[in-house]
Amino acid sequence: MKEVNIMVGGILDLVPLDQLQKRTQETWIGVDYGATFLLDHGIVPAIALGDFDSTPAPLLKRLKERVGCLETFPPEKDYTDTQLGVKRAFLDYQPDRVNIYGATGGRLDQLLSNLYFPLLEEFQPYLDRIRLIDRQNEVTYYWPGEYTIKKLSEMRYLAFVGLTPVKNLTLPDEKYRLKNFSTTVPISWSSNEFNGQVNHFSFQAGVVAVIQSRDWTL
User: Fold this and answer.
1) Is the Cβ–Cβ distance between 47 and 88 less than 8 Å?
2) What b-and-e string marks burial along 117-150, b requiring 16 or more CB atoms within 10 Å of the CB?
3) Can you tell me the distance from the alpha carbon of 68 to that of 63, in angstroms, rounded to the nearest whole number?
4) Do the domains at 3-135 and 141-213 have one common CATH topology?
5) 149: phi then psi, degrees, rounded to nearest 5
6) Counting runs of H as helices and runs of E as strands, what totals does the chain give?
7) Contact 137, 104 (CB under 8 A)
8) Which of the 8 DSSP states describes residue 47?
9) Measured between alpha carbons, how far is 26 from 111 in angstroms, rounded to an integer?
10) Read out DSSP for 98-152?
11) What are 158's strand-pairing partners?
12) Right CATH number for 141-213 from 3.20.20.70, 3.40.50.10240, 3.40.50.150, 3.10.520.10?
């Protein structure tokens, strides 16, 4: 599986550093201060991009010296920095999966922007290949269908989030089961749990985000 990783300049205390260490040889895109964060942790991103409004001038100079491809955008633009990074990842590398780090926590407006942007028409072709990852959560996106999901060893909780109206969501073997539940508004079925290491779910219309999570630990 071909994967590309994106480091966004959000709340970087939430970044799982153990995953970075395992992915040092993979392709990385640094978004705004996320590019500096990567350099600080021994990873030279293939691309650094953004408006760099949160990157001090000396650190931006270092990026220009170290990163082969650096693209600067004005703060007033049609896309968020995260969206620009995702566009470049799929257009340049055609990956099977894009892992986004540093896109959660902090300001709620930015969190919601990062959670919902895969629903935009331009990003829908990539929706089910995008993951949001931090120390507490992993978010994946699904179109209608029948799915098998595997428990992440460090995660306790399981949530099914209808990002759109959803038809006939069925959770047949989770701890708290659900059968053919439909809703006309976005809703989160949260604080569920796996039964065993593998569970299943299905739905017939809409978009569902699956979140595996755990309580915060320092």
Assistant:
1) yes
2) bbeeeebeebbebbbbbbbbbbbbbbebeeeebe
3) 9
4) yes
5) -125, 145
6) 5, 14
7) yes
8) E
9) 25
10) EEEES-SSS-HHHHHHHHHGGGSGGGGGGGGGEEEE-SSEEEEEE-SEEEEEE--
11) 192, 212
12) 3.40.50.10240
Domain limits, the chain? 3-135, 141-213
pLDDT score recorded for residue 217: 65
- 13 in helix, strand or coil? helix
Please count the residues of the chain. 218
Spatial CA neighbour of 23 closest among 6, 47, 48: 6
The better pLDDT of the pair 156, 76 is held by 156
Q: Report the interhelical angle of 33-40 vs 57-66 (nearest 10°).
A: 70
In tens, the pLDDT along 93-130 reads 999 999 999 998 888 888 899 999 999 999 999 999 99
In the numeric block, which tokens belong to residue 156? Answer: 């306790």
* Strand-strand pairing, 137-142 and 187-193: unpaired
**pLDDT confidence bin for 184, thresholds 50/70/90:** very high
Architecture of domain 3-135: 3-Layer(aba) Sandwich (3.40)
**Whether the Cβ atoms of residue 63 and residue 35 lie closer than 8 Å to each other:** yes
